[in-house]
Design a protein that fits this description.
Length: 229
């Protein structure tokens, strides 16, 4: 079984439209959807926004349904000027940009008293995503930064370490949480993000307008991955 996770309803609706034989499995305020997509058994869930909900739902999903792989899809803000709205980022590594114990001598993003800092995603899943034959957008491979803030241009500019130290090319709110839970549970994980805004003064407007387009783009890439697994 392959798990597909999105943070918002709009980020999973395209997957549900194409999934057959759906069974709903409610839990608390969440619903797990079991079904078949591209001849693969899948489980789809909206985890909610932010690291806490993403971590909780990922672990619940693993404990109850034992997926062989986890695909997290959604939208993100672009940090690299070369990346435009509509382009896709496949995470090479994820890191919590708001984990900051530098006053204690730890590097930004490092979890104190552990070896965990940059969390690698699965190389095989990433390689498949990067092979998607994109025609009207580009696919990038690089570090995705996670934190419990929706960043604007002014905030990004005041935090040079996002690009300089953490080498982030995209910024969002769940990826590092999902990838860390998957890593600890030894489950291959892909973080796939379509750029909905450039974390600038237009971020809120671009985000709202672009979510449906981004969701369709993410679906097409996941569809390609499922066909080729």
């Amino acid at each position: 079984m392959i798990a597909i996770i999105g943070a918002m309803e709009e980020e999973i609706q395209e997957f549900l439209r194409h999934t057959t034989n759906i069974q709903k499995k409610p839990w608390k305020n969440f619903t797990f959807y079991l079904g078949e997509l591209e001849k693969k058994q899948v489980i789809i869930v909206k985890c909610g926004v932010g690291k806490i909900l993403a971590s909780m739902l990922t672990q619940k999903l693993i404990d109850d349904y034992h997926p062989a792989k986890i695909l997290f899809t959604g939208i993100a803000g672009g940090l690299d000027p070369a990346i435009n709205i509509g382009d896709v980022v496949v995470a090479k590594q994820c890191v919590q940009h708001d984990m900051d114990c530098s006053a204690m001598g730890f590097k930004i993003g490092a979890i104190p008293y552990t070896e965990w800092h940059f969390i690698d995603t699965d190389k095989n899943l990433s390689a498949l995503a990067l092979k998607f034959p994109a025609s009207d957008f580009k696919i990038f491979h690089g570090n995705v930064l996670t934190g419990d803030q929706f960043m604007t241009h002014e905030q990004v500019d005041s935090k040079k370490y996002l690009r300089d130290e953490l080498q982030g090319i995209a910024i969002e709110m769940e990826g590092a949480a999902v990838s860390m839970v998957a890593m600890i549970n030894e489950i291959p994980c892909l973080i796939l993000r379509t750029i909905s805004d450039k974390a600038d003064s237009n971020a809120t407007v671009d985000f709202k307008k672009f979510v449906p387009i981004a969701s369709l783009r993410n679906y097409k890439i996941v569809e390609f991955i499922l066909k080729n697994l």
